[in-house]
Amino acid sequence: MKNYEVTFIVDPVLSSDEIKTAAKTYSDMLTDEGCTIVNLGELGLKQLAYPINRRNSGVYYCIEYATTAPAVIAKMELAFRRDERIMRFLTIALDKYAVKYNQDKRDGKIGVAKKNAESDSDSKDAKGAKTPVKKQDLAKIEGIGPKIAEVLASSGILTYADLAGASHDKLKDALAKGGSSFTMHDPATWAEQAKLADQGKWNELQKMQDKLQGGSAKASSEEE
């Protein structure tokens, strides 16, 4: 069986029951197609990097599943596109390293590394005392999801400024440390996006991201 992970955003104006029903629709679809649900995670309400359908936030869900029939992906993504409750979605394939990473995170093992990374990145105030660096939501950068943000954090990239100042090679090295499934991602535009975010130029960032798909330039024939 091959492992996959799908992250999708549900319209936050729906009632709590409607939001849960939307998520259950897709977990049930996977089960009905013979998939094994490894984990269904509700990531909660998060602010969007730019408005989608006049919404500034969305309720994030992430489903990790295993299947012997990858054709289910196309069927589910078609359902996502037709479902007005779903604002955005992204499916990625997981190799054994990514599967282990997910399990270690659920077991709390990744949290230790994350705390160490945050500790190492502390700055000092005028009296020489350490003050924690406030971590920013790097998932607002097109092409970066919650798991990639965790991988970057483990390499000390916690803020938009950190990301804007990181070289392409440093970002590729950080992804490689997270496992081979992360090396498929192209960080070519991340630093430029992060620079706009760090400067608070959200409108310019939105215009840039409208031309991207997964962090890379969209093909002219792709759907918005």
Our estimate of the beta-strand percent is: 25-35%
Number of helices: 9
> Which range best describes the helical content: under 10%, 10-25%, 25-40%, 40-55%, 55-70% or over 70%?
40-55%
Given the helix and strand composition, which structural class is it? alpha+beta
What is the 3D shape? Answer: globular
Distance from N terminus to C terminus (CA atoms, Å) equals 32 Å
Whole-number total of structural domains: 2
Low-pLDDT runs of 5+ residues are none
User: On the 0-100 scale, what is the average pLDDT?
Assistant: 84
Major sheet: order of its strands? 2-3-1-4
Order of helices and strands: EHEEHEHHEEHHHHHEE
> How many strand elements?
8
Q: How would a crystallographer describe the biggest sheet? A: 4 strands, antiparallel
Would you write up a description of this structure?
The chain is of the alpha+beta class and 224 residues long. It has two domains: 2-94, Ribosomal protein S6/Translation elongation factor EF1B (Alpha-Beta Plaits, 2-Layer Sandwich), CATH 3.30.70; 103-215, no CATH class. It has helices spanning 16-32, 71-82, 96-106, 109-120, 146-154, 160-164, 168-178, 190-198, 202-209, and strands at 2-10, 36-52, 55-67, 86-94, 123-124, 130-131, 212-213, 216-217. The chain has a four-stranded antiparallel beta sheet, with helices on both faces. A hairpin with a 5-residue loop joins strand 5 and strand 6 (130-131). The chain starts with a strand and ends in a 7-residue tail after the last strand.
